[in-house]
Specification:
The chain is mainly β. It is built from no helices and nine strands. The chain has a five-stranded mixed beta sheet, with no helix packed on it. It has a four-stranded antiparallel beta sheet with strand order 2-3-8-5, with no helix packed on it. β6 and β7 form a beta hairpin. The termini are far apart.
Length: 209
């Protein structure tokens, strides 16, 4: 059984444009001097079958482990710190061993390295983002996020989550088929930076015509 694994990381920030009267200010964008280490996310997926052989109709579990690392961890108002705002994990099972709605997990099925039980992400509309299965690919997505997860990085870095995703091998799977699966993860890491610039030069303009 060959099982693939990929990791994806996202780190974004935004700087609001600023200007003073008459004279625009151009600000250099920087985060630390020099720039600090990059954030990272790693993901591994295996199958809980020691001999590498499964049978049609057999129940299996995709074992997934994801680790997210903030480069300068600390959920504070101090410049130069960053924290995780959300974690998304996507498991794309083999078409011959799909995940069904009955296989979807609950928050208590996930084990976090900080010892807490994190709840699923609550969207801007106030509703929980429930686990979902993509009808085209069979991929299942789990989303965790604010306000619960942002405080977990205060003392835990890197942060790891592990879980076992149940599935069942199709009864029509051809003999000798190879099962392949993929796991991906995204961590939304929010950097806090200090944006400074020298005082602008003011110019007087004659507004008379």
């Amino acid at each position: 059984l060959v099982l693939g694994a990929t990791g994806v990381v996202g780190a974004t920030t935004a700087l609001s444009p600023q200007a003073e009267a008459y004279t625009p200010i151009t600000k250099d964008v920087a985060f630390g001097t020099p720039d600090g280490p990059d954030p990272s996310v790693t993901t591994e997926i295996t199958l809980d079958d020691a001999d590498g052989v499964v049978d049609p109709g057999q129940s299996i579990k995709y074992q997934v482990a994801t680790t997210a690392t903030a480069p300068q961890p600390g959920y504070t108002s101090s410049d130069g710190k960053d924290y995780i705002r959300a974690v998304y994990v996507v498991v794309t099972p083999d078409k011959n061993a799909p995940v069904t709605s009955a296989d979807l997990l609950s928050p208590s099925d996930f084990t976090w390295s900080d010892g807490r039980t994190h709840q699923f992400l609550v969207g801007a509309d106030g509703n929980t983002v429930a686990p979902s299965i993509d009808p085209a690919t069979g991929a299942v997505t789990y989303s965790f996020g604010e306000p619960d997860i942002q405080s977990s990085f205060t003392t835990t870095n890197p942060l790891t989550v592990t879980f076992a995703q149940p599935a069942t091998v199709s009864s029509s799977a051809p003999a000798g088929s190879m099962l392949t699966a993929k796991a991906e993860a995204v961590a939304d890491i929010n950097p806090l930076g200090s944006w400074t610039h020298t005082d602008p030069t003011y110019s007087e303009f004659d507004t008379q015509t």
